[in-house]
Amino acid sequence: MSARQPSKPRARRPAAQARPYHHGDLRRVLIDAALQLAAEGAEVSVREAARRAAVSPGAPFRHFPNRDALMAAAAEEAQRRFRVEIEAALSEAPPAGPLARFRAFGLAYLRWAMRNPAHFEIISTGRYFAHGSSAELTRDNAELIALTEGILAEAAEQGLLRSADLKRIQIAGRALVYGFARMNLDGHFPRWGVEEGAIERMAEGVLDLFIAGIAKP
Amino acid sequence: MSARQPSKPRARRPAAQARPYHHGDLRRVLIDAALQLAAEGAEVSVREAARRAAVSPGAPFRHFPNRDALMAAAAEEAQRRFRVEIEAALSEAPPAGPLARFRAFGLAYLRWAMRNPAHFEIISTGRYFAHGSSAELTRDNAELIALTEGILAEAAEQGLLRSADLKRIQIAGRALVYGFARMNLDGHFPRWGVEEGAIERMAEGVLDLFIAGIAKP
DNA sequence: CCGAAATGTAATCGATGATTACATAACGGA
DNA sequence: TCCGTTATGTAATCATCGATTACATTTCGG
Q1: For A184, nearest residue in chain B (alpha carbons)
Q2: Which of B41, B60, B156, B198 is the most exposed place for a label (fewest CB within 10 A)?
Q3: How far: B2 CA to D12 C1' (Å)?
Q4: Per-residue pLDDT tens for A10-57?
């Protein structure tokens, strides 16, 4: 069984063949498989992704030079979905001032992070592929950061903040939101009651506390 | 070469043998090797740890049932060092009120996390061994959390806090400190200038901002 | 219509976690 | 002191994984 009959002159494109030799869009399917594996909490291996795409173990390397590249591509896709959701939430929210916008941003951020923990992990950790492996990811991330920091800068310009040290407030805001997301991700919330949604309500509370802490009385 | 000469009656204990057949304290050496590998940013593999201990690839499995157990033991050791340093910092600090103690705690925490990033990662992430793999680690961690939350509870009892929602403040405090540590760990601080110590000073600033935000005016 | 480029397959390699059978040292009771 | 039980390390082996190479098949443009 070293090869299927080498000289079988079958009709080209045999109409409804089980699976054509060429896959169609293997690259995309591999990325989706990688994201799905991550979401299931499983190890993401190139072979397993290939297995899910019903393709040989070497096939993925036609589309990605190595495992890192596959992970980076998966991270880019996850990041894209992340951004879409956050920007949607921001555009839906009424422009009720910078601090309200910061709250809306933080809430959308945390909600997505808590509902897609494995994807958030891939995006934020930079431990799944070589650093700087994806310029797109780096750029997207920078834009998200600029977005938050811009919101807080706006608040400062409008004289809404108590402290004059804007940089410090920006870092603290990012650390608070990121830290909350990571605490959830890293299992620091002990199954907070059976009640689902308790964590999201706590996220709101923490955001409100932060805003009350930095806002001018 | 199926076996070495089976019946070589060599002298018992050949005086000043290069390395005795038994290692002495292989378990400890393996844990140290694992921590050192992590600190070097390398993958921690059982084989590499064995290699550093100059021992066969199967030897570690006499001391740890599997890789997870080795990682868990390494995490316990790292956590022990972490606690020692934090408790030292707290006992050295004058008991100048709960908020000052919170500051001292947060600073010691962040300093250690920033100077031992790989070890902090192993401790905090729970992604390097099966969850609940180490009861000691879980207990130690719970005690550290209780320590911080106790400090803030004390502040609340003494009427030092602006908000009455203690739980919210405790979570926010933990999220802020943890988030700052993780941001550093996950490469969210773009090599903040050449100047070393800039991050630690920013850590102080963020802690002060938080305390100012929750303290009664 | 045909040849070059793209894409998938098969075979193979080195490293790793893990298990098993075996060898050797250490320890403790008779 | 001797001997056997136990602890500990070695050697050999396996399955899985990332990666590379040679080869097969399909697709597409001139």
Answers
A1: B175
A2: B41
A3: 8
A4: 333 333 445 666 778 999 999 999 999 999 999 999 999 999 999 999
